[in-house]
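Z., the sequence and structure:
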Amino acid sequence: MRRTHASAELPVAQLDVAQVTGAAERFVAAIEARSIALMLRLDLSLPQLRALVIIHRWARANGRQLAASLRLTPGAIVGICDHLERRGYIRRIPDTADRRVTWFELTERGGAVFSRTPATTIAKMRMKTLLAGLSSAEREGFVKVANAFAEALESTLASHDAELGAAEPPAIA
């Protein structure tokens, strides 16, 4: 199944800045909507959610890895992980070979955050169908653009997180 948007059929040289910007803004809005819904449901701040996602993706992470990945200070990571641990999403595991290292792993409750809902399953199936319809060169281009876009977003989020000081979310009355 091929793409149906007219702008998707234009050669790259014919795409104007407004089209590219519009597509990027739609992409970010979709990500933001999902992240905000998850943050509200879990009562987490964005830095806390990002740390949880990284621990989930890597199966476990230590403070230095989280600090580097989130581009935050080790002190900010301690606060983030303290909150995640109090909420029951992660646990601290001392490293058996190096007592200076503590690992963060998801608890059962933390893992349940990433359980697939029907909407998530449907979205993944649609994405796989879309990507399967792309040529090898188009998939390669997508990977380059998606990685560059993710890097830009992560850089922006890290700056924003640092400004917020990785603060706890406000209490919901």
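Residues 41 and 58 are 23 Å apart (CA to CA). Residues 17-164 form a domain with the Arc Repressor Mutant, subunit A fold (CATH 1.10.10.10).

Let me know what you think.
H.
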